Structures
1.
Amino acid sequence: MGTIYPFIPPIEIGDRTVVFNHIGKTGGSTLIDILDAQFPIDKVCKQRENISQITDVELNQYRFIRAHLYTDLRKHLKSNPIFITIVRRPTDLVRSVLSTCSQSYRTSVLSCRVSNEFP
């Protein structure tokens, strides 16, 4: 099996669960698309919010969990999970958030003007 980058060896996961803690505006959505394709669809937990509301029994049926995590899942998973997180330089992260907010603001103002809800 090849690797994407020659300096990163492939990870043997066996029957372990892969947990991706998605931090917003870090490129995680792209990685999620790639990782989703590596697991059977019924083994991917698609609930991104309120993950703590899933029972331990149900949680342990998944092989890939991707969510905005606000809780420690290690105490809920039977296997020794593999955790993945992407981080970004703080200045780049702030620029990305501000850009998204600016685009969202422009879109909402434009849609209000088109729908005559905005004078």
2.
Amino acid sequence: MSGIGEGFRDNGRLQGFLRQHPSERKGLKDLTEDQKDDVQHVAAVLPNWDVDVQVYVDGEQIIFEGSVITLKVQVGRCAPTTD
């Protein structure tokens, strides 16, 4: 049995959930009001980032073994959703 989080990939579903307006978040119908409040509180404080990554070789279309690459990473924090 694998550990919690081992090999975890959400394919953007968590980010999508965080970016929804709290009233539009699905999957909470079977929770108590206290549990729903907990989920909304955690969603409000989790980091919500946009990350854009580009890897390239200046002046080349193809990356070959031994090529010197440029890695460009842009990180931005998204505005939190509000009630």
3.
Amino acid sequence: MEFLQKEGITTREELAAYRKPLEEQVLSLMKERRELYRKAPGGMRIQAINGELKELRKKIRLSQKIEKQSLEMEERLRQAKATGTGTGSVRETAKRQNGIDKEVKAYELWR
């Protein structure tokens, strides 16, 4: 949630829009690095590019994880609503409902 708040992202579409320029920047840096490897292997710029790539890839992976988790959460919510609370003891039902309520709240904040 901290990442989403920091970047001002509230929907999956915004998340995809955030990730697209990062992926383009990764491709551009990889191309630049490839040229530098041919011209000046071991240069300082290559090390700087490697550091930038590491941070960009980290942000891309995080955004992909968030998107995947939001889709999974949406599916679980859909299933929970379709099946109702199910059967079982009152305590089990309360635990299950509490977990669903937390997921609903988190999803609604994300949406």
